[in-house]
Amino acid sequence: MNSSRITYTAPGKIILFGEHAVVYGYPALAIAIDRRAKCTVSSYLSDEEDVVLSTNLFPGKKFLVSSKESFPSSLQAVLFLIKKLTDNFQSNISLQIDISSSIPSSSGLGSSAAVSVALTNSLSSFLGRNYSLEDVNKIAFEAEKIQHGQPSGIDNNVSTYGGSILYQKGLMEQVTVDDISGFWVIANSMVERNTKDIVANVQKNYKRKQEKTEEIFHSIHSIVIRGKEYIKQNKLDEIGELMNENQTLLEQLGVGHSKLTDLLLILKKNGSMGEKLTGAGGGGCVVGLFDNIKDAHSSMKNIKKKGYQAFTAKHTKIGVTIDE
Length: 324
Description:
alpha+beta, 2 domains, four-stranded antiparallel sheet, 12 strands, 40% helix
């Protein structure tokens, strides 16, 4: 054990292009954003059991690691990681694990993956286990399977490595981007949805209309490849156009929602260069691209007036990192 207290943070993400198609072996392009999950592991001499706190999700509550039944469904992956990482760990101390996040949960921004990556790094480091980033990424992916059933793996990759990532069939390519100069307005529809259920519904449609669905996936593939080059060149107008194309295709897959449509229209009316849902859809978040912060803030205010949540974000190159 290296310290009596250690903290790591990991970023959330937006999928810029390629949702759903990525599950079927096509590439997707995602970028890390400057909203992060934080995990602090500390110890104390006590006969009490190891506990988990989630200050912003479950304020005032403690969850006992020894009692699976006490953990809500949203923290089952957390419990899995703790048990996996503390296997064969013998000590007279008790562990306290504090989790917080500025990434809205169940909204397509990779909140669960960011928590898993931050927790894996903080707990393994606390226990003196020198895991590589590759190790952290693989372990966090195991937790994502518990949380989401059949995840693509893109969320844990972005949270681990940061920056911009092209992901396909378990292979990750770091896309070298000097900077994406635009500002993202991320608007939360406040409609919670289960990623596992949305993915399953797309799979049902795929089995019924395989040829049509494959055509949609091929079109999304083309968008991803072009989008990769545009973000490398910081071509905001072209990125915005591709976002709109991708949104049309996602709606054809049946993952839209009336609240998302409302948000997309607000973004468009307020000068967004492009707007689309991000993540599984069926609720969750949409993103709009702006070339100046003034318009981004104006759009965000108008979204909030309609009763939704919204915030601005920037692309970040920083993946999981220790919080000094």
